[in-house]
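Below sits our specimen:

——
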Amino acid sequence: MRIRLGYVPLTDAAPVIAAVELGFARAEGLEIALSREPSWATLRDRLALGHLDAAHMLGPLAIASALGLSGPQADISVPMALGLNGNAVTVSNALWAAMAAKSDAPDQDLTDVAAGFARVARARAGEGRPLTIGTVHPFSSHSYQLRLFAGLGGLDLDTAVRLVVVPPPDTVDALRRGRIDGFCVGAPWNSVAVAAGLGRIAALGCEIAPDCPEKVLALPAEGAEFMRPLVRAVHRAGLWCADPANRVALSTLLAARAELDSDAALIARTLAGALIVDGGGRERANPAYLRLDAATHRPDPAHARWLVTQMIACGQVAPGGDAADRGAALYRPDLFEAAIGG
């Protein structure tokens, strides 16, 4: 069977890339053409319109697409999750200096960092030149983590900050050009910005919202005869990716094939959760920074409910409806278990 699978260049696309490049898909009788998509909006539309057969997709965007809240309404299901966490908030060097953190220690208290961000944001808003912060898509865990981060400092993001959408591969260039003052994005783009001398990693997503639901494998809800072999292939590839013994080989593969615009050593650090946070080489380690382990593969309807709760909190979904139930119904642990044999 021949299928076309879309992905956005991020470290957590590793399971779908490895499934193709290392032969896991071929062993299941699948010939997969990988399609590198420039943005989540493009991927969303191409999946909804049938130009892609499956996709590495933002969990909340899959829900929003199925509910008709973003782009063409799509009849899709989520038979597998691809991982948890992986995001960080990075700010420009100038913004970090203005935040006047108590120290340059890499493990500063998250609330203190958020308070510094809130103070600068309020001041800039009062001067009529609000901070411009990038997120990868309105329906993304990144948008929700930014709101939670701002809330730790007592800041209402909507009233004090200009939030703009920047596709992951464009975040570093947008920071370089001064189009944005910071962003929340997935690995490796935060580390790429630091390596380029453009910014400071201010907060890790896994500390703002531990075990945050992230990317999923999304495909047509009914009639996808390739669903079971695809889930098996990506699951087995995910197990390989999560093995620390394969970290060097995986980093080399991603640097060569996924067009992440970064070297293998930098990608390896994101996989290990050992991040350089600033130009001075300070390191912050958190093994939960990006989770691709087997425990993350089963799609959990509770994760979908949490995501809908965040959508409601930021006004994307009206409270009191059935969006949580409909979102939870998209996450199909029964399909995952049937595919991998329980």
